[in-house]
Automatic annotation (TrEMBL):
<dbReference type="InterPro" id="IPR021732">
    <property type="entry name" value="DUF3301"/>
</dbReference>
<dbReference type="Pfam" id="PF11743">
    <property type="entry name" value="DUF3301"/>
</dbReference>
<protein>
    <recommendedName>
        <fullName>DUF3301 domain-containing protein</fullName>
    </recommendedName>
</protein>
Length: 117
């Protein structure tokens, strides 16, 4: 009896680990594609899981919502954080680079934006 319970527990742990890896791989693809579409550099070549919570799916069952963070750069010297949220394998929220986004450089120190010199 104990062996059966141990095998069931191992199967549940393996299933959770496997779904976490699948979600991380999906988040990697989404982050990489978003950076490529926006013309920015995807930094560290990875995403980092930052949160997980339970939510109620449309069919009434419980599901897991996972939040991931990734970093990107416009010119190789700056660093910005992006965030995406997956419910299962479906993207429900994205914050990060967008296609056609313009970066406005800051003026050199000591100069005013409105100066006419």
């Amino acid at each position: 009896m104990q062996l059966i319970l141990l095998m069931i527990a191992a199967a549940v742990v393996f299933g959770l680990w496997n779904s976490a890896r699948a979600a991380a791989e999906r988040a990697e693809v989404l982050g990489r594609n978003a950076c490529h579409a926006a013309g920015v550099q995807w930094l560290d070549q990875s995403v980092h899981a930052t949160g997980m919570r339970v939510y109620r799916r449309e069919d009434g069952w419980l599901g897991l919502e996972r939040t991931f963070r990734f970093d990107y750069s416009h010119d190789g010297t700056d660093r910005h954080a992006g965030r995406l949220v997956l419910r299962g394998d479906r993207l429900v929220s994205f914050t990060g680079p967008t296609a056609g986004a313009q970066v406005i450089p800051l003026p050199p120190r000591g100069r005013d934006l409105h100066s006419d010199d």
